[in-house]
Design a protein that fits this description.
416 residues; alpha+beta; BirA Bifunctional Protein, domain 2; Rossmann fold; eight-stranded mixed β-sheet; 15 helices; 16 strands; binds adenosine monophosphate
């Protein structure tokens, strides 16, 4: 038997209903913030992700699904959302004549060749959004508030924004030099990957999962101590806005989110002070890097699958419908045609309806009524139908009424 590939999941039944509900909540929230939905291709030219995410990142070095297509093109499956959205932004030259910010959100499958474990998959979903055009800290605050409110709207109250600033180019450069000088004599105490990272991009060392708890990294200089005045003022202004919006945040001086493209704001959203449900930041250089023009931008990506897990772990009650409106039973073959057209009529009028497709006994059909948790049921029989009548029964109260078959829709409209 063929089984699903490692690190993938089938989404079915209740799980699918929970996801539909989550999608509805997120769509409605994005509408309030006036973000438009975008979907980019599942695969893109490899160079987009390699350049966009950064050649020195673990993601590109070890985790992308890269292959040649039948036309010998280098293709990569989408490992994250930002690069594709920036490619779309540039391809449509949206950086020209901008009068208002461009705001888009996505809900897309991502692909990373990771070691699968709980909350870490090879095919997973991210809900995320990007805001282009504004460098004002109020736009960082808008993006952080959208991310934060998404969790709140879903019923996850104990979330906290972990916040840091890497500063502008000048601040980052000063910090990078300080970090390199600090790390140089300690290199032997770090893992092999970090030694390599030191040569390519030392900032990434701070994100190393292997060395995360080492004193070397704990005592490393922090970006915040190297912010120039302008960057520090900007960071303080952002915190003022977050205070005004009553957003629960903490400054985490070690947070760097090692990607090359971040400047100023970086943030993650944590739940119960433990794992990250998502992260984002400002990336003012990426649009130009990928062929566009200078364009400030800020974004966020939610780990959708982890958020679903968090909903279960925190016992958040989700309003999903696990019942149907009506079940049509029939006594014998002769009432089957009526079941057929009534089911059509009910469904077209907005009621969920089931009838028996197995030619089961009446007793077995009654079992289906309960399995489907039907609110009403009707036992179609020739005697009633000869008089154009049906008996409709409330499955909870067991109250029964005899009505004209032509009044069924009106009856349900009134009673449901
Ligand atoms: P990143 O794009 O790496 O910044 O990740 C943003 C969020 O996506 C993380 O905080 C996770 O919640 C989620 N995420 C990242 N990688 C995976 C994965 N392999 N499986 C499931 N969720 C993931």
């Amino acid at each position: 038997m063929i089984t699903k590939p490692k690190g993938t999941i089938d989404i079915y039944g209740k799980e699918a209903k929970i996801r539909s509900y989550v999608n509805d909540v997120l769509d409605a929230l994005c509408e309030k913030y006036n973000f438009d939905r975008i979907e980019t291709p599942v695969f893109e030219d490899s160079s987009l992700f390699h350049r966009g995410v950064g050649e020195s990142s673990d993601l590109v070095r070890k985790e992308t699904y890269d292959f040649k297509d039948r036309g010998d093109r280098d293709i990569t499956l989408r490992p994250e959302g930002t690069a594709g959205v920036v490619r779309w932004f540039n391809e449509n030259k949206l950086y020209g004549n901008m009068t208002d910010p461009v705001k888009v959100y996505y809900n897309m499958k991502m692909y990373r060749y990771e070691r699968p474990q709980s909350g870490r998959l090879r095919e997973f979903t991210q809900w995320g959004f990007e805001l282009f055009g504004s460098n004002d800290p109020m736009s960082d605050a808008e993006v952080i508030s959208l991310a934060y409110n998404a969790y709140r709207m879903l019923g996850l109250d104990n979330v906290c924004v972990m916040l840091n600033s890497l500063g502008d180019k000048e601040s980052r450069e000063t910090y990078r030099n300080a970090l390199v000088n600090y790390l140089k004599p300690h290199l032997n105490g770090l893992c092999e990957d970090c030694k390599e990272r030191f040569e390519i991009n030392p900032l990434r060392i701070l994100d190393c999962k292997v060395d995360a708890d080492s004193d070397i990294l704990k005592n490393a200089p922090k970006p915040i101590d190297y912010l120039n005045e302008e960057s520090l003022n900007r960071f303080n202004k952002l915190k003022d806005y977050l205070d005004l919006m009553d957003i629960n945040y903490e400054v985490d001086e070690s947070l760097v989110r090692g990607l090359d493209y971040y400047d100023h704001t970086v943030f993650e959203i944590k739940i119960n002070n433990s794992y990250a449900l998502g992260g984002g930041g400002r990336y003012n250089n990426l649009v130009k890097e990928l062929g566009g023009e200078d364009m400030p931008a800020v974004g966020f990506a939610m780990g959708y699958d982890r958020t679903i897990l968090a909903l279960a772990e925190n016992e958040v009650s989700i309003p999903i419908n696990e019942s149907i409106d009506i079940y049509l039973l029939y006594v014998s073959e002769s009432e089957k045609d009526t079941a057929c057209y009534l089911a059509q009529d009910l469904r077209l009028n907005g009621f969920s309806c089931e009838t028996d497709l197995f030619n089961k006994s009446l007793k077995s059909q009654f079992k289906s009524v309960d399995r489907y948790n039907a609110k009403y049921f009707i036992v179609l029989n020739d005697e009633d139908l000869a008089k154009d009548q049906i008996k409709i029964k409330d499955n909870k109260t067991k109250e029964e009424e005899t009505i004209s078959i032509n009044d069924l829709i009106d009856y349900l409209d009134i009673h449901m």
